[in-house]
Each structure stands twice: as C-alpha cells, then as structure tokens.
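Field guide to reading this record: the first block holds the primary sequence, the second block holds the structure written as discrete tokens, and the final block holds curator observations. Each block starts with its own label. This record concerns Lactaldehyde dehydrogenase, catalogued under organism Methanothermobacter thermautotrophicus.

BLOCK 1 — SEQUENCE
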Amino acid sequence: MEMIIDGEGVSGEKIFTVRNPFNGDEVDRVPLAGRSDVERAIRAAHRARDAMADLSARKISEKLYDVADELKTELDEFARLITLESGKPIRFSRDEVKRSVETARLSAEEAGRLYGESIPMDAGIGGKGLTGFTVRIPLGVVAAITPFNYPLNLAIHKVGPALAAGNTTILKPSLEAPLSALKLAWILSEHFPAGAVNAVTGRGSEVGDVIIDSPLVDKITFTGSVEVGRYISARASMKKITLELGGNDPLIVMDDADIDSAVEAAVRGSYLYSGQVCIAVKRMIVHEDVADEFADKLVNITGSLRAGDPMDVRTDVGPLINEDAAIEVERVIGAAVEDGAELLCGGSRRGNFVEPTVLDHVVPGMEVIERETFGPVSPIIRFNGADEAIRIANGTCYALQAGVFTENIRTALRMAREIEAGTVLVNKQSTFRVDHMPFGDSGAVEWVRRVSSTP
Ligand code: NAD
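BLOCK 2 — STRUCTURE
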C-alpha cells in the first residue's frame, strides 16, 4: 500500500514487508519513508491550511460523517486488515472498527460545536461596560504518531478531532501494523483537500525527529510507550504535545465483592488482545479472604480460553505482535516465578504465542507488576485491608484507569477518590471506555454500575 503525500500515492525506494504475526505470511508492503518524504508531507500539510480554512464547520462535519459511513460500509475489510497486520482476534477487530465509526461520528459532531466564550470584563480594572469574547482557531499542522495495538481506532482518534477543528494532518502509524491506518488515510484524503491528510510509513527512530524538529509542525499527538513518549517530550521542547502512554491498571477485589463478576471482569480485562492494551488489567489486587476462590475461578476460565488463528471467530487469544515481544513476556513471567510468585497456569511460549498465565502471591517489587507487562498475564497480589490495597494500587508510576469490585458504597467512593488514576470504575474493569468521557490523567470518576448495596 502506498503512502499519501499531498493527495497522491507515494511508493518509496525502500520497502518494509508487513507480516501476519500468526503465521509470518506477507500481508502487504509499505514504503520506508525517508527524511525527504516526511519533509514533503509536512510542507503539503502546511500549504493545505488555506484550503481547510475555506471549509465551513458544517462542511467539515458532513465530510467526517461521510467518512464514518464509509468505515461502516467497509467494516469487514477493515477488520480483516487489522487481524492480518496485528494478530488481533477478528471479533475484537470488528469491535475496533465499530468504535472507529463512533469516533469519526463524534469528531463530526464536535466539528459543529467549537464554541468560544463571552466574558464580562467588569471584574477587571477599567472593564465596566466591556465584554470580551474568545474564538477557537485551528492550530495548523498536527502530526499524529500511533502504536500497533489499535491501529485504526487510534489513527481516527487523533486525525478525526484534528480535522474537526480545521487542522491539517500527518499520520505516522506503527510499522508493525500500518495498513488499516493507511486505508483510513486514503478514505479521509478523498474527502478533504489535497495535503490536508498525509500518511507516512517509516521507522519512528528514523522519521520521528524530522516531525519533532520541524517548525512547520504545530502540534504532536502521540500514543505509545513511556520510553518514546519521554523522548518526544524532551526533544519537542516548546511544541504543543499530547502524550497517551503506557498503563499498569489495577483491579481491586474487596472481600465483599461479587467474586464471579470480578473474575469475569478480570478475564475480560487481562486477555483482551492478549493483554496488549494500555488499559488492560495488569494487576489483580485481591483481598486475602477471597483470594483462593478468586484464583481458582480465574484459573478455570483462563484454562478454557481458546488460543489459535485470529481469523477464526472462536479464537479468544491470538499471538503477540512479534516474537521479541513474546520472548520478553516469557522472561518477565520466569523472573516472577524465580522471585517467589506461584505459577497457577500457563507460562510457556510457542513462537509469538504466550499462554494465558495466572501468577499468584505476586508482591510489589516484582518486575511483572512494576512495569507494564504487555502480554496475557494475570498477576494476583494479595492484600489485607483497604489501606494496603490503595497503597499497592498507587505504588507504580502509571495512572490510566482502575477497577474496584465491592458492594459497599463507602469503600467504592473512597477508592474512587484515593486511587491515583484518570478513571476509577466501580464493579467494572479498566478496559471499559467510551469516547465522550474524559480519559487518562483527567481525574474523572465514573460510576459505570451502581453498587448494589448501600452502607
Ligand atoms: P512505541 O512507543 O514503540 O511506538 C509508538 C509509535 O511511536 C510508533 O508509530 C513508532 O514508530 C513511533 N516511534 C518510535 N520511536 C520514535 C521516535 N524516536 N520518535 C517518534 N516516534 C517514534 O509503542 P508500541 O509498541 O507501538 O505500542 C505499545 C505502547 O503504546 C504501550 O506502552 C501501550 O500502553 C501504549 N498505548 C497507550 C495508549 C493510551 O491511550 N494511553 C493506547 C494504546 C497504546
């Protein structure tokens, strides 16, 4: 598939072969962009600002609605591409496309709602009788750098709102899974002026600096690992940036929790796309009085999950994105066992596949829970008392989302207040997310399900 620069397809001198993580088969080839390709894309986006400025908010909104419709029409093909490039089980790929349709529609809605404020000025000295007002104007050129794990949704998640606000864009998807993002960029570019949507495929380490250093790029929106986020943040200096980085989300299970629901949520949250999700449940913090029951039930369901070909609708767990990623997860599991964790099930690796794994008696300090483990691993950390649970939950540097299972409203409210996460979900796991909610380090507290007993 070609890149898009200034409304035209571009194939580079060097190419990269995209392989299916399930069987290593070639899926497609994409160009390996060089410095001059990226510079051309940036200049095209810079020039296209005028053409975007000619579009009314209503026109932009209509175009984004049309893009949403096309995504919906092409749901099957997008899902197939996502599964082939990323190894994501097809059921989940279909969910990703549906959510991308939703994201495009939300962007279309917001395009018509970019209001400013009117501010009475008489609170300031000399302001009597005066009224100020603000208007929103586009920033200019927005560069979007996206990871492999939600290759379509995270692309529309960035490019949709940027266009909605009248900006032009350069999308740089992950080389591991660039195809669905490129296909999306093609659809977008057919609706918007030439140069308003550009997409370049290349190694982040090679083309990233060209984007970060360019004075013509007004904003970088990045989703990916903490390491790369740190690098971009340090290098971008005064440029506007938005960073959505790694997670290590806890699921706290209190002694009064509905254990069956908690286990079901743990399974859902831990093994979704083999755990390669920023808001996957990565730590299960379970009260010691219910930990044996929780662990038994978790092992039972974990053992019944079906691993295999991600194209098969019955597959629950597919491969990791590549063998290096699988080797790393296997290493971290091994290190936890060496340090005293008990392996209840799983733990082995075959090629890119890591068996869904339950580890019990994990304690703070073990690498498997100190850093983000991007694989199908369920570490159980036992605690005794709410203070200890909160201390453990807050004991890492990550803070995306958290889930708490309890039937006690006081406990739920305390956890919601004291757990350092953007969102605390009560009786729901951290993978739950809707796009019109604030996300990330936003301090939002959501009640997804009412707790069933009152204190
Ligand atoms: P990654 O950081 O390796 O790569 C992300 C993107 O950055 C890719 O497009 C890559 O090519 C590019 N990149 C790499 N080096 C770069 C550089 N020096 N300059 C500029 N760009 C560079 O991440 P990944 O492995 O693709 O994705 C997994 C990570 O993403 C996990 O940590 C996960 O938690 C995180 N993630 C976060 C969210 C969120 O919303 N917070 C969502 C999804 C994934």
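BLOCK 3 — OBSERVATIONS
Residues 145-150, 172-175, 204-205, 208, 223-225, 228, 231-232, 244-247, 278, 372, 374, 400 surround nicotinamide-adenine-dinucleotide (CB under 6 Å).
The chain has two domains: 3-244, 249-453.
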